[in-house]
Specification:
By secondary structure, the chain is α+β, with helices and mostly antiparallel strands. The chain has one domain (about 15-75). It has two helices and two strands. It has a two-stranded antiparallel sheet with strand order 1-2. The longest helix has 7 residues, at about 15-20.
Length: about 90
């Protein structure tokens, strides 16, 4: 396992897709974090997502309808679908 201040998460991309629930009319709240990555200096298989590489944090927002969380939005049925996701 790589060393550093970040979290190491080894997940097969196919498994990640399975974690996203199919749209059933309910919000799926997510928070997205963006990290700086340079393929010329970093091996993608051992990339460490730590505070030094963080660029932005967005959300929470609904994965399906792409609306930011507010109590009003949360109280309504989600109007997204599987095709409208990020």
């Amino acid at each position: 396992m790589p060393e550093g201040t970040g979290n190491y998460i080894a997940v097969d991309p196919k498994e990640l897709k399975e974690r996203i629930p199919k749209f059933k009319g309910e919000h799926f709240w997510v928070i997205s974090v963006t990290y700086k990555f340079d393929p010329e200096t970093t091996d993608a298989s051992s990339f460490i997502a730590d505070h030094e590489n963080a660029v932005s944090v967005m959300g929470p927002g609904c994965y399906h309808c792409v609306m930011y969380y507010t109590p009003e939005v949360a109280s309504q049925k989600c109007r997204g679908d599987d095709e409208s996701a990020f």
